[in-house]
Amino acid sequence: MANRPMLEVVALEKRFGPNTILKKIDLKVAESELVFVIGPSGSGKSTMLRCCNRLEEPTSGDILVNGRNIMAGTRRDLDRMRLQIGMVFQGFHLYPHMSVLKNVTLAQRKALKRSKAEADARAMNMLEQVGMAHKADAYPGELSGGQQQRVAIARSLALDPKVMLFDEPTSALDPELVGSVLKVMKDLKSKGMTMVVVSHEMAFARETADRVVFMDGGVVVEEGTPDEIFGAPKAERTRAFLSRVSG
Amino acid sequence: MDRFLETFFNPVVMAQYTPDILAGVWVTLQIAAAIIVAGIAAGLALACLRSYGIRVLNVFIICYADIFRALPPLVVILILYFGFPSIGIQLSGPMVLFIVLAATLAAFAEEIFWAGFSSVEKGQWEAGIATGLGFTRTLTYIALPQAFRLAIPPIVNRVLAITKMTALGSAIGVSEILSSATTAQSFSGSATPLTMSVIAYLAIFLPMVAAARWLESRTAWKKR
Questions:
Q1: Which residues of B touch A106 (CB under 8 A)?
Q2: E strands, B39-114, where?
């Protein structure tokens, strides 16, 4: 079971005009695996992540989620597939005009067509899981960044995704709020969620990641276990990057 | 002072023409309500269509909005009322007034709603799309309510500016407030009916201005 790929990126290429952002990226993420993607800014790691649910349109290549290619099929197929791919953004992007509960129920109601009772129950359950159930009636503007991000995670989880993508989930947070979000992510990992995390939280990567991928200049330079990458990086570029971030 | 009161506040004239002015108020209110509903609905629909980014369609929408924002409504009113019968299109005065002012309001409303859509953060769209809502539902449930809220103050101002223009109906014989007042003025030889029209306009539009202020004060999102 642990070896079945839940997310497969095949020969992914992304060009913006004359610039090639991603050059033939291949990545396999097994079920329940947590893959951590690191790399300098401009390395293409966020673009790679955003290609995985086609928020960014790949120039070529394939993205398979649970064995199904999201590059094939109609717009509606894509929207259905996106329900299975949770995404957490650096900027949270909660809907400011809706209460926390509404934020978590909207897509359940309108995309999954769940009943109100079912969506509410599911939302409360997820909010409980991220420790935000007590704020169900609050508005996003009333919450701290860490609280907003936890609600955003609940919003994704409520759709029962097969994979969760995290795009620098703690980069916009005050340092003292980072821990609460990382704890939620760790819980999620222990519950067996398949996760791809783009982040600079190296200590977290060391502790929870199954595999670390180092990207630079639009290619995967090196990948391995946290011990391999952090302990004994093979590539010169990896070593240079790690020495810079560890300061 | 007596002469001033005699001219502008003659009680006999007032009593005599109050029913006419009230009839004018009723006509103004009906046409104004129709203009507001149709103008805002059309403007909103155009702004929504524009957000789909279909190039050919957007050229038409932008041309329409620019032309109707540039033209003085009176010109269009006169063309429709006096010119169109010659090509076989006969429209009543109230209908012409409604069409032209609603079209003008729609042009302004489209631009205002579009500005509202443009200031909704890109991340809001992405969050909706990423949760499988697709473009149309993200537009409907996420972008539109936020754009609408941003648009309320400028829309209310524009609604005030354009519904006031129902007074242009006096140029084509629509018996709205100003028309009733000028007719009463020529029959009575007194300026008092014009005073009555002032009072009538204030009675209609001052509450709208107050409502606009109230709406503006509650458009802010809840912040901690």
A1: 131, 133, 141-142
A2: none
B132 contacts on A by Cβ (under 8 Å): 79-83, 107, 111-112, 159
Q: Point out the residue among B124, B131, B224 whose CB comes nearest to the CB of A107.
A: B131
Pairing relation of β-strands A19-30 and A5-16? antiparallel
Residue boundaries of the structural domains of chain B: 20-223
Half-sphere exposure at residue A36, Cβ-oriented, CA atoms within 13 angstroms:
25
Domain B20-223 has CATH 1.10.3720.10: yes
Q: What is the distance between the alpha carbons of residues B130 and B115, in angstroms, rounded to a whole number?
A: 24
* Closest to A225 measured CA to CA, from A9, A11, A34, A4: A34
With cut-offs at 50, 70 and 90, classify the pLDDT of residue B208: confident
Partners of A38 in the β-ladder: A214
Say which of A75, A139, A152 has its CB closest to residue B221: A139
Nearest to A32 by CA among A188, A184, A220: A188
- Please give the residue of chain B at the shortest CA–CA distance from A51: B130
Question: Of the candidates A93, A107, A152, which has its C-beta nearest B132's C-beta?
Answer: A107
| pTM of the predicted protein model | 0.88
Which positions in chain A touch B130 (Cβ < 8 Å)? Answer: 53, 55, 82, 85-87, 156
SS3 B133: coil
Distance CA B80, CA B91 (A): 8
Which of B202, B184, B203 is closest to B16 using CA atoms?
A: B184
Interface probe, candidates B121, B131, B152, chain A, greatest A C-beta count within 10 A = B131
Interface confidence (ipTM) of the complex:
0.93
Name the pLDDT band for B221 (thresholds 50, 70, 90).
low
